[in-house]
Amino acid sequence: MFEAIQQCETAVKQIYETFDASHDWQHIERVRQNAKAILKKEKADASIVELAVLLHDVSDPKYKKADEDLETDILDSLKLTKEQNSQIQEIIQSVSFKGGHGTVPATIEARIVQDADRLDAIGAIGIARTFAYGGAKGRKLYDWKEEPRSEMTEDEYRSKPTSSATHFYEKLLLLKDQMNTETGKQIAEERHQFMLSFLKQLIKETDGNK
């Protein structure tokens, strides 16, 4: 599997380097480190976890072109078994938040990858990524008159250009309680508290109406 991982890394790095800073190659490196930290306490197939981490954003709807299926193209090139391909694809399907409509992870590998990815969405790095993505999309930093949505379809979640601060209330502050592994829960707690402190200060420094 080492050769497949090396081949996959080479292929995906070129793709992630074309994405904005919220989903670039550094994001993948951090998620991989998160997964390795969780794997110290969880028994799982580390190679499958690593391949899923490497591939999990190459076909993200936010960046995918209509005529592309990079995830399948790269998987097919790795010459894995059908079972391994299927397992990796199932993990990737379970990673995304999808406006709260994401798939519940069915395997320990999927739970690890989901936690590893979501840990990179919270805390100091989560704050940085949120504003990096918002800036790339031309979104407001904050809009305290904007009501965060608690019920929305996946399409509504993806299509409405809410402010970056609103995104905290619609997703990031929800992730702590959705962690699957004990390691994920422990790391998430500190990062969650940091986000709450940041938002409190942001409100103080702006119009203070929230």
TrEMBL record:
It comes from the Bacteria. It holds the Pfam family HD. Signal peptide: none annotated. Residues 24-122 form the HD domain. InterPro entries: HD/PDEase_dom (IPR003607), HD_domain (IPR006674). This is HD domain-containing protein. The lineage of its organism: Bacteria, Bacillati, Bacillota, Bacilli, Bacillales.
